[in-house]
Specification:
The protein has 6 helices and no strands. By secondary structure, the protein is mainly alpha-helical.
Length: about 190
C-alpha cells in the first residue's frame, strides 16, 4: 500500500514537473516572438526615420522651384511631424497614409516644373526615397509576419492558456487603410 502511494506521488510529481516545463517552454516562446515583434517594429521605425529625415530636403529643393506651392509643402511637413509624434501602431499607420498622400502631391508638383524634375539634387533625393520606400515595405511585411506568428501563438491551445495567465495581448498589424495608399509611391524622373 505504501509503495502504491509513493508511486502515485512520483507520477503526480512527474506530471506536475512536465506541466511546469511545458508552461515554461510556452512562456519563453511567447516572449521570444513578442520580442521579435518589437524588434520588427523598431526596424520599421528606423526606415521611417530615414524617410522623415529626407522629407525636409525634398521640400526645400521643391521650394526653390515652386515657392508658390506653399500649401502643399506645408502639408508634407505637417504629415511628417504627425508621423514623428505617432506613438501606436494605429497612429503610425494613419500618419503613413497621410505622408503617402502628401508625397503624391509633392511628386505632382515636380511634374509641373521640368527644371525641378531635371535637378540632380532632387533626382538623388527621389532615388533615396524610392529605396527607403522599398525598405519600409519589407519592414512592414516582416513586422506583420511576426505579429501573425505572435497572435497565432497566443490564440491557439495551449498558448492561449499561458497568454491569459501572463497577460499577453494581441498585437496590431501595420495596415494601410486608405485604398489610394495601398499602391506604391510612384516616383518618376
Amino acid at each position: 500500500m505504501l509503495t502504491g502511494i509513493i508511486v502515485l506521488i512520483v507520477v503526480l510529481a512527474a506530471i506536475a514537473i512536465a506541466i511546469l516545463l511545458i508552461g515554461i517552454g510556452y512562456y519563453n516562446s511567447i516572449v521570444s516572438i513578442r520580442n521579435k515583434v518589437d524588434n520588427a517594429w523598431h526596424q520599421i521605425d528606423v526606415q521611417l526615420r530615414k524617410r522623415y529625415d529626407l522629407i525636409p530636403n525634398l521640400v526645400e529643393t521643391v521650394k526653390g522651384y515652386a515657392a508658390h506651392e506653399r500649401e502643399t509643402l506645408e502639408k508634407v511637413i505637417e504629415a511628417r511631424n504627425f508621423g514623428i509624434k505617432a506613438t501606436s501602431v494605429q497612429e503610425q499607420a494613419g500618419a503613413e497614409n497621410q505622408i503617402t498622400d502628401t508625397l503624391k502631391s509633392l511628386f505632382a508638383i515636380s511634374e509641373r516644373y521640368p527644371n525641378l524634375k531635371a535637378d540632380q539634387h532632387f533626382s538623388r533625393l527621389m532615388e533615396q526615397l524610392n529605396g527607403i520606400e522599398g525598405n519600409i515595405a519589407y519592414a512592414r511585411q516582416f513586422y506583420n509576419d511576426m505579429v501573425m506568428k505572435f497572435n497565432t501563438k497566443i490564440q491557439t491551445f495551449p498558448g492561449n492558456f499561458f497568454a491569459r495567465m501572463f497577460n499577453f495581448s494581441k498585437k496590431d498589424y501595420f495596415e494601410i487603410t486608405e485604398s489610394t495608399a495601398r499602391g506604391p509611391v510612384k516616383v518618376e524622373f
